[in-house]
């Protein structure tokens, strides 16, 4: 009996130690800290570290909000923070829909045309992959600011007028497809598993440098990309434009002349130079691509049409590739876009958002066992739901009727859940029916949601 108790205690201790160890590893990956001995031979075996890190993203965002409030700052705004998370969910939904197809070309080049056979489990390969991925990220990121069609995708990441960790997951759905070509030279030497792993670590590291809660990292500022350097990159002030493209390392900016330090006591204005005020993630993902198409159509010669796509965002006929520096605006202060919602409305949106979020994570657990059509249907539901929630944060006149339609459709569709989980299915049906009835009985005239802007 004593032996059984001892064994049970040992098992519990080992289980607890394992949980703690896994969480420490999860947090460590946000800072590019990962045991080098944990390598993978096949790229299919590399875990989706980015998806596993979502709990840590949310925890760090909450901690950042608390720190900022303790410093007397406003912290993360509900509407802007949820919009950032929605963009991250959009990006992951895209990956679920095309099931990692981005890496197929890389693997094909490596299999057929590699010029070096680096051992996948060698420490030098690990470091070569880390440096190679970061070097290619610098040029990919720089191209996203200097090539108009690439900027049309990357601008999503710059749409927030705040600068916090939520912005770290505010990503474009299709930028991965446009930017992936910059990493393909690595396929001549770096094994696919090493590339996939470090590509994820690079983006995990860049999550936490989106913050105003950390002022400086001291001597590390000379080597690493830090919150201070990245604040400059996200600014709309003229001195912030087209600088600090680094991912993990800032040395590439120092080498290629694109580094600019943060100026103490200089107020940085975040967001796009020509802001598009909205909390609608679908609109923010797509509006600039429509602008590029319009600019393309506005010119008569094919030379100007192509330059409108492949030259810089500021290019106009008769100017340099990146536009006329003298004509670029210097944003020094502006009002932030905001919309006032009653507390009950915010509570409603957060509740529905949580249900959608739960559905997203449930999909990430089950999607490999589902048919592509089923995945596409659920992904469409998630994107539509987050879009309508964003429209409600915008106080769009179309949002109430769209919410009625969404909740009515979901009340009908949750009947399928009732067959496998009656309690959950019935609860969801009641939840959506009541929500649909609520928006049928209330109009914006009764709701009285008003726009509110505030200089900060």
UniProtKB/TrEMBL annotation:
In its keyword annotation, does this UniProt entry include ATP-binding?
Answer: no
Name a single GO biological process: lipid biosynthetic process
Determine the domain of life of the protein's source: Eukaryota
- The EC code for this enzyme is 1.14.16.5
One GO cellular-component annotation of the UniProt record comes to: endoplasmic reticulum membrane
Give any GO molecular function from the UniProt entry: iron ion binding
Q: Alphabetically list the UniProt keywords.
A: Endoplasmic reticulum, Iron, Lipid metabolism, Membrane, Oxidoreductase, Transmembrane, Transmembrane helix
Q: Which InterPro entries match?
A: AGMP_C, Fatty_acid_hydroxylase, Sterol_desaturase/TMEM195
TM annotation in the entry = 339-361, 373-393, 430-447
The question of whether Transferase is a record keyword is answered with no
Start and end of every Fatty acid hydroxylase domain? Answer: 128-258
Catalyzes what?
1-O-(1,2-saturated-alkyl)-sn-glycerol + (6R)-L-erythro-5,6,7,8-tetrahydrobiopterin + O2 = a 1-(1-hydroxyalkyl)-sn-glycerol + (6R)-L-erythro-6,7-dihydrobiopterin + H2O
Entry similarity comment: Belongs to the sterol desaturase family. TMEM195 subfamily.
Name of protein: Alkylglycerol monooxygenase
The organism named in the record is Parnassius mnemosyne
